[in-house]
Specification:
Elements: E1 2-7, H1 13-22, E2 26-31, H2 36-42, H3 47-51, E3 57-60, H4 73-82, E4 87-89, H5 92-100, E5 104-107, E6 115-118, E7 138-141, E8 146-149
Parallel strand pairs: 1-2, 1-3, 3-4
Antiparallel strand pairs: 5-8, 6-7
Helix pairs in contact: 4-5
Organism: Actinomyces urogenitalis DSM 15434
GO biological process, one term: L-tryptophan biosynthetic process
Domain Glutamine amidotransferase: 4-147
């Protein structure tokens, strides 16, 4: 598995690099200040990936601010959506996916630090990244009080 990680200037980025490395992934990191075309080129499957029916995964990292103020982030979300690139977004990265799909991110009330129950859908368990979550629902802590609003 090859992961193309967009660094949105967050200290958590190299925790993600380490996590993907433990899964055996080859990781390429690009700052969100590089031209989007450079990252898009990295998302093209290698001949070996194409032959195996695989393509790189795009990981959109956390970071400060609003998705539309994060360099090439929104341009890459549009690319991922139009070209069916497997994508995972974390915090700001997920907010960018939400915005790219036509919804909006907004405040959902004071839930920072509270625990919520998350259930990984059975289809998600076929991905090696989620196999460790196979024991059923798990409790996670909310890091902020933002959520998806105005779904299309």
């Amino acid at each position: 598995m090859r992961v193309v990680l967009l660094d949105n200037r967050d200290s958590f980025v190299y925790n993600l690099v380490d996590l993907f490395a433990t899964l055996g992934a080859e990781i390429e990191v690009y700052r969100n200040t590089v031209p989007a075309d450079r990252v898009r080129a990295a998302l093209s499957p290698t001949p070996a990936e194409a032959e195996a029916g695989q393509r790189p995964v795009l990981c959109l990292s956390p970071g400060p601010g609003h998705p539309r103020e994060a360099g090439c982030l929104m341009e890459l979300v549009a690319c991922a959506l139009s070209e069916d690139v497997p994508t995972v977004g974390i915090c700001l990265g997920f907010q960018a996916i939400v915005e790219g799909c036509g919804a909006h991110v907004g405040r959902v009330g004071p839930v920072h630090g509270r625990s919520v129950r998350v259930e990984v859908m059975p289809a998600g368990l076929t991905d090696p990244a989620f196999v460790p979550l196979e024991g059923g629902p798990l409790d996670v802590a909310r890091y902020h009080s933002l959520g998806t609003r105005d779904l299309p």
